[in-house]
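Why does residue order matter? Because the sequence determines the fold. Keep that principle in mind as you read this record.
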Amino acid sequence: MRNLYTHFPVRLESVRNETEDKNVKTFEFEFLNQENAESFFDQQTFRPGQFAMLWVPGYGEIPLGIASSPTEKYTLKFSVNKIGKVTRHLHSLPPGSTLGIRGPLGNGFPWQELKGKTIAFIGGGYAFTTLRASLVYLLDPANRGDVEDIWLFYGARTPGMLLYREELESWAARSDVKTHIAVNTDNTSKWKHHLGPIPTIVSQVLPPGDCNSVAIICGPPIMNKYAILALREKDYRPNQVYLSLENRMKCGVGHCGRCTIGKDSVCSDGPVFSMTEVEKMPDDY
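Structure:
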């Protein structure tokens, strides 16, 4: 049994600015111990949609959605917004720094149940991390045949706030991924994709759902709300919609109570929930 309280030591290999304001950076880590790497990347325990706890010595521990796929052995990626004490210090660290990782934690997307389905990914802002992991996972040659059509809807306020811009362009160039990228505003006149909120683009572009259709949503709460409404208009039933509620997590193992919604602990029962499960949660959520 893995000890979910034990940190695996990792080394910071690279740091890359993702957004023009430099508030979101992607950090790439490698394990110092090969045995730890194999334990983390065990195919029975690591699935896109999960998260990990990143320990920054002397500053604290934070939950982060895993941006890398199990197919990208044995490198871990996290895209982190600079919003607090721990993340501010993380943003200042140079490559070569040693940190700690606990995980993978929580439940990922139900990939076995999604086999043979058409999947629509709907993401916004820096919450796109676990969707990036999911796309890389499904587009791996070993997995691409597991699902039918793949739709990708992703948006941000401006072009400079989009994550993974090179990968977005490479996905847009593929014939087997129907990619729709949107921004709310663009002052350069060079933008060649959609203008407007992502839920609006979903309403305009996504075909009506059938029994073989599934949508996976991960974005800011206001985007999630209107994306769900758009999917209802497209005849997606609650059991065909999955959400990641990873913004609610704290300790990572369901003990502190900070992530509790009704009877559910997001970090141990989630962070992935079907809309059927979400509809049973208290109305104040």
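The mean pLDDT is 91.
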